[in-house]
Structure formats: structure tokens, C-alpha cells
């Protein structure tokens, strides 16, 4: 193996061994590793942002371009990972064992591979004397797996009010990170099991957590009490489940030319049911909790109309336990950024296919998109099974190494995207 690639693999293993798994991620250790690694790679002096949230430092590298007034390219990744049940793994989940050409560890796909690939690509270009036109901001943030409030949202000082003001065109200047205006962002994606196929995300589904309460008549369990809370809640649940079946049918419809993906449909899951204490007492209240995920093509009003319909019975009501801020889609059809993105992928792999989709779950990109920064979710994991958050999460060593070249091409093309001509 090429010495630079061996170094990259060794660094990847070391990063995987850094325990950033929830619920007690060691962010200080991760940032210390990244600083040392940046020095080893001869990168510009990294910055550690540790004043935003206590014990949640962030890592940044800035490469200033020749056109340093032009909005910069952001390369973002998150350093935290989810927990792992070691008993269910074939290899210890925090060792980074290489077996049969694959690296096994929590975070190999989600998403420590990307952090190392981006740093390798950037340092290799710089070592060849590359000077980008646009500046590059590389960030590695904490807490993505638990909502990003103390991570990307804190880095952006995100507020719903600012997002709404920007959406209304009342923009208080560009979105900045490390003092630089950000023009376009690359953040995490998912593996694609088909060889040569990359899944690329330009939006994601918004999670709504809903509480439904039914109230009704109470009485002795021996009688036919009318209008009970339980009957009403079950009526509601049946409507929600019928809708769920319709959406599942849309997703699974075979031979359909629509070709729906999980990111294109609304998922509804009844996750909480609570009522009753004693067998012989009709409860006067019953509650349900739901997890509903909505694609960016569905307006929040549409979702409210659905819930209004399902709860249109006296004694039924709902509230949002969590309601996400805006959910926006990154425009790709006429975007010079997206054209450059596809050009870069094809420069690295001429036969590659980019499959544009809506991410089924939530990532840090939502904060960027909500502030109007175009963001693409992309991890260069073509021909890899989707193993994020799964037992035996792993990637092929060859996939890891080939991804470095993809980021070199992306950095080259995306930092050369010209400014729009003056009107
Ligand atoms: Zn992730």
C-alpha cells in the first residue's frame, strides 16, 4: 500500500479507537487527536473552538483562498458515534480491527471515515502546492447523534427566528463560520450497496413527535359505558395506522415508475400507548405518542390537516412534543455548486452514478439548509452495505482509500465554482 494511504488507514484506526460514543463521548480526546493529526499532515494551524458549550469542543481548519471574499466551501463531519453492544459484534467495536480487507468499528461509516478522508484530501492537495480560489472551512462537530443543539446549531448560533427572517429575504448578512461566509456545504450521507452508485442527499425528512390525549366517560368495568377515552384513542390510532399502511404501500409498490424511497414518504409510528390502572375501572384518559417523519415536499400545514382529521372527535386533542424548525430542500437542477459536485464525482470515477434522494432521518445539514446555505449529504461509500448504527459497522479498506481521491476532486471543483456574474 502507498505510504500515504497506510498513514491514512492508521489515523482512521486511531480515530475509531477514540471513545466518542454516547452517552459519555470523550470530545477532548477526539479533538486532541485531530489537532495532532493536522500537525502530522502539515495542515494550516487548526483551531479548537471550546468556548461555545462546556466540555463540547469543536475542531476547525481554515484554508484561505485567493478569492477570500467569495463564500467558502464547508466540509463538515461529526465526531460523536452511537453506542455499541460489544457482545453482538464479531470484533471489538472500538478497536478498528482489519479483517478480510474491512475495517470494523463503530463510526467506520457514521462518520469518522469522512473526517479522515477530508483531512487527507485537503492535506494532499496543499502538499502539491494547491491554492484554492474559494476558501475552505473544515469543521468536526460534537453531538450530531443527539440532535446537534450543542454542535452544529451552537456553531451557527442557530435560531428559528433567524431562519424565518432569512427565508423571508430579510437576511442579516451571510452565514459565517470561523469568520468566513459559507457558500456551500458537504455533510454526511449514507452508503449505497450498488457498486459504482453514490447516494446523494439534498434534503431530509423532518421528525415530529406528537402527543395525543383522549378524554371520556369513566365508570365501572362491568357496564357498557359510552364515549370512553379508550374507544376514542383507538379510533384515532386506526386512522393513523390506515394512513401508515397507505404510505408503506406507496414505498413498496413494485413496478411503479415513481420509484419511491424512504425519504419520499411519510412514516407514522405509534411509539407510546398509556391508559388505565385497574381492570374494573374505565379510564377517563388515554394517551398515545407518535413519531412522524415528513419529507420536505410536505408542508407543515398538510401535516397539521392530517392530525386535525385524525383527532376530529370530541375529547381528542394533540400537541407537538417536538416540532422541527423549517425543512428546506437544497436546489440542485440549476445550481453551479451541484453541477461542480457531479463533475467532481465523475472526475474521480467516470462511471459513477449519483442517486439524488431525501435523507430518511435527520443530520446537521438541516441547520445549514434552514439558514439558506445549500448543503449536500454525501459519504463516498459506493458498493457498501448500509451499516450505520448496526452491529459490525465496517467499510472496505479500498472504499476508505478511494474516498480520499473523491474528496480531492470535490475540493478542486467546488473551490473553483465562479461567483454569479453581476446583474
Ligand atoms: Zn452521522
TrEMBL record:
Cited SUPFAM superfamilies: Bacterial exopeptidase dimerisation domain, Zn-dependent exopeptidases
Record EC number: 3.5.1.14
GO molecular function: aminoacylase activity; metal ion binding
Broad class of enzyme this protein falls into: hydrolase
Binding site for Zn(2+) 2: 110, 145, 389
Coiled-coil blocks: none
Pfam family name, one: Peptidase_M20
One CC-aspect GO term: cytoplasm
Domain of life of the organism encoding this protein: Eukaryota
CC cofactor note: Binds 2 Zn(2+) ions per subunit.
Compartment annotation: Cytoplasm
Obligatory cofactor(s): Zn(2+)
Matching InterPro entries: Aminoacylase-1_M20A, ArgE/DapE_CS, Bact_exopeptidase_dim_dom, N-acyl_aa_amidohydrolase, Peptidase_M20, Peptidase_M20_dimer
Keyword annotations from UniProtKB, A to Z: Cytoplasm, Hydrolase, Metal-binding, Zinc
Record-annotated Peptidase M20 dimerisation domain positions: 210-315
Active site as annotated: 80, 144
Similarity field: Belongs to the peptidase M20A family.
Name of the protein in its database record: N-acyl-aliphatic-L-amino acid amidohydrolase
Species this protein is from: Thecamonas trahens ATCC 50062
Amino acid at each position: 500500500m502507498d505510504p500515504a494511504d497506510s498513514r491514512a488507514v492508521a489515523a482512521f484506526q486511531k480515530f475509531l479507537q477514540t471513545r466518542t460514543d454516547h452517552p459519555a463521548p470523550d470530545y477532548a480526546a477526539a479533538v486532541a487527536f485531530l489537532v495532532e493529526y493536522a500537525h502530522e499532515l502539515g495542515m494550516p494551524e487548526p483551531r479548537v473552538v471550546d468556548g461555545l458549550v462546556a466540555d463540547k469542543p469543536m475542531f476547525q481548519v481554515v484554508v484561505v483562498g485567493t478569492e477570500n471574499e467569495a463564500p467558502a466551501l464547508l466540509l463538515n463531519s461529526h465526531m460523536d458515534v452511537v453506542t455499541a453492544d460489544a457482545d453482538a459484534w464479531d470484533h471489538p467495536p472500538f478497536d478498528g480491527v482489519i479483517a478480510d480487507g474491512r475495517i470494523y468499528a463503530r463510526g467506520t461509516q457514521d462518520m469518522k471515515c469522512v473526517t479522515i478522508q477530508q483531512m487527507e484530501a485537503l492535506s494532499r492537495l496543499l502538499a502539491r502546492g494547491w491554492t484554492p480560489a474559494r476558501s475552505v472551512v473544515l469543521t468536526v462537530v460534537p453531538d450530531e447523534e443527539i440532535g446537534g443543539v450543542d454542535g452544529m446549531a451552537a456553531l451557527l448560533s442557530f435560531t428559528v427566528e433567524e431562519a424565518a427572517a432569512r427565508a423571508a429575504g430579510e437576511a442579516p448578512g451571510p452565514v459565517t463560520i470561523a469568520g468566513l461566509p459559507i457558500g456551500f456545504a458537504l455533510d454526511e450521507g449514507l452508503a449505497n450497496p450498488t457498486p459504482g452508485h453514490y447516494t446523494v442527499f439534498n434534503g431530509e425528512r423532518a421528525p415530529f413527535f406528537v402527543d395525543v390525549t383522549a378524554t371520556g366517560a369513566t365508570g365501572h368495568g362491568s357496564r357498557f359505558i359510552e364515549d370512553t377515552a379508550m374507544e376514542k384513542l383507538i379510533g384515532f390510532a386506526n386512522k393513523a395506522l390506515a394512513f401508515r399502511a397507505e404510505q408503506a404501500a406507496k414505498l413498496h409498490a413494485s413496478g411503479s415508475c415513481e420509484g419511491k424511497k424512504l425519504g419520499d414518504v411519510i412514516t407514522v409510528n405509534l411509539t407510546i400507548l398509556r391508559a388505565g390502572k385497574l381492570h374494573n375501572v374505565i379510564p377517563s384518559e388515554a394517551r398515545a405518542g407518535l413519531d412522524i417523519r415528513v419529507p420536505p415536499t410536505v408542508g407543515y400545514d398538510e401535516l397539521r390537516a392530517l392530525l386535525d382529521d385524525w383527532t376530529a372527535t370530541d375529547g381528542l386533542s394533540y400537541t407537538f412534543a417536538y416540532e422541527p424548525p423549517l425543512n428546506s430542500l437544497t436546489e440542485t437542477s440549476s445550481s453551479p455548486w451541484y453541477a461542480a459536485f457531479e463533475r467532481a464525482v465523475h472526475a474521480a470515477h467516470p462511471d459513477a452514478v449519483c442517486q439524488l434522494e431525501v435523507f430518511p432521518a435527520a443530520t446537521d445539514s438541516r441547520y445549514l439548509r434552514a439558514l439558506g446555505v445549500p448543503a449536500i449529504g454525501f459519504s463516498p461509500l459506493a458498493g457498501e452495505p448500509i451499516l450505520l448504527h448496526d452491529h459490525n459497522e465496517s467499510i472496505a479498506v479500498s472504499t476508505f482509500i478511494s474516498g480520499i481521491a473523491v474528496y480531492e476532486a470535490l475540493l478542486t471543483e467546488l473551490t473553483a465554482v465562479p461567483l454569479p456574474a453581476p446583474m
